[in-house]
Amino acid sequence: MIKIGLCGLGTVGRSFVEHIDESYNLIKKKVGTDFEIAAIADRSIKNKKHKTGIQISEDPMSLIDIEDLDIVVELIGNVDLSYNILKQSIINKKQVITANKALIAKHGKELFELATKHNTFIGFEASVAGAIPIIQTISSSFSNEKVISIVGIINGTSNFILHKMSNSNCDLQSALKEAQKLGFAEADSSFDINGMDAAHKISILAALAFGIKPPLDQTNVEGIESITNMDISYAKELGYIIKHVGITEISDEVVHASVHPVLVSNTNIFSQVPDEMNAIIVKGERFGQTMLYGHGAGGNATASAVVSDLVSAINHINHSTSSYAQMIETVGQKSYKIESLDNTNSQYYLRISADDVPGVMAEITNKLAEKKISIEAVTQHEPTDANSPIPIVIITNNVKDLLMQDVIKNIEKMKNTKDKVYAIRILSSDG
Fold first, then answer.
1. CA–CA distance, 428 with 69 (Å, rounded to integer)
2. What is the pLDDT of residues 10-37, one digit of tens each?
3. What's the CA gap between 88 and 61, in Å, rounded?
4. Is the confidence at residue 52, as pLDDT, over 80?
5. How far apart, in whole angstroms, are the C-alpha atoms of residue 284 and residue 299?
6. What pLDDT score does 322 carry?
7. Is 338 inside a domain boundary?
């Protein structure tokens, strides 16, 4: 009998228990072993429904000292506490599973080394992209392929918000409230909005794909908090949809990782990813592009990935096999240079507010021309009233990020421009 200890009985924890109850026979057939949830620890366990006949505690750390527990499933979310639980569990020879992307992004290298040292399974499929098996794909399906780039919509909450704003003409806060109501967003969704959740995920994928330490501190991060209905409307006019993506790629032994809003063409497959869904394109050196698509937010999607890791953990106990083992051993072994976005090339969407006076458009285009930045499209919209500035939207051709930032500063210094220039990169057709 394999005994499981569960830390955390929140949304994902409850869904995990339900998955076990509903799919027990199917899982048992896959692993060939009886198993059970033998202990649950949650700080507010007295206020939550749970099974009788199992060990209950308000102290999540208590599970690491239960000798006959084989697997510890950590679904708390607190980075420091989760780190201590996993570290001590591994030292105590217990298999561990977590959905905590911030934990893996910050402490993954150390925990992977510890798991390798103690021959312990560490599962973290649920840390990235919900129900999409992206970790398994990189560790197994791409084991004989050199990954060149990973581009994806990897935060279900932000995608739901942008999709809702685009299709229902509501503002960001209204869309966020609906996401929270439907269980696709936490009460505190600041990390979803400001991009940090996606940054944790893309840094994990970069580490696994390129064998480097998770580059969280060197990941360029932009959220969706500045996206307006105005930008969504103007983008539509030009044949684009606004999405929030994570990108990591390697070229000439230089890696970059970033998270930011992008305009994607209506012909780009990412434009068709609705609601809380996620989509990830992995590009290999020989095999080209592979796309994975599925639910990226919600308790059920995350719990599904946790169950997948549970199967792997039991197989590790029974057969000492794991597709993760070789992959986690490589994390941190490479020391490629991590590059900022300054030297990357991209087309840009620029929204500029300017006084409705003669010559202002010519002055703006001259600022671009001085830096040899060509214009692919330009539109000028009517002001909301007689005293309001006019919105000018420009689509540029490819330009280095650093150069574009310099031009934006020059435009903002003009006498007849108002407010900040809002810039969004445009995702190329091949990602």
1. 49
2. 889 999 999 999 999 999 999 999 999 9
3. 9
4. no
5. 31
6. 61
7. no
Q: Which CATH number is 231's domain given?
A: 3.30.360.10
Do 276 and 159 share a structural domain?
yes
Do 237 and 347 belong to one domain? no
Examine residue 335 and state whether it is found in any structural domain, yes or no. no
CATH assignment of the domain containing 362:
3.30.70.260
Task: Name the active-site residue from 201, 243, 283, 367.
Answer: 201
**Structure confidence by residue, pLDDT tens digits, 349-406:** 999 999 988 889 999 999 999 999 999 999 888 777 767 889 999 999 999 999 999 9
> Does one domain contain both 140 and 289?
yes
- Report how many domains make up the chain: 3
Token output for 88: 């001590």
- Give residue for tokens 């992307």: 101
Q: Are residues 321 and 397 in the same domain?
A: no
Give a three-class secondary structure readout of the chain.
CEEEEEECCCHHHHHHHHHHHHHHHHHHHHHCCCEEEEEEECCCHHHCCCCCCCEEECCHHHHHHCCCCCEEEECCCCHHHHHHHHHHHHHCCCEEEECCHHHHHHHHHHHHHHHHHCCCCEECHHHCCCCCCHHHHHHHHCCCCCEEEEEEECCHHHHHHHHHHHHHCCCHHHHHHHHHHCCCCCCCCHHHHHCHHHHHHHHHHHHHHHCCCCCHHHCEECCCCCCCHHHHHHHHHCCEEEEEEEEEEEECCEEEEEEEEEEEECCCHHHHCCCCEEEEEEEECCCEEEEEEEECCCHHHHHHHHHHHHHHHHHHHHHCCCCHHHHHHHCCCCCCEECCHHHCEEEEEEEEEECCCCCHHHHHHHHHHHCCCCEEEEEECCCCCCCCCEEEEEEECCEEHHHHHHHHHHHHCCCCEEEEEEEEEECCCCC
Q: In this structure, are 71 and 176 located in the same domain?
A: no
Q: Is the pTM of this model over 0.90?
A: yes
Active site residue 201: yes
Domain encompassing residue 421: 343-426
307 within 8 A of 315, measured Cβ to Cβ: no
Look up the CATH number of the domain holding residue 7. 3.40.50.720
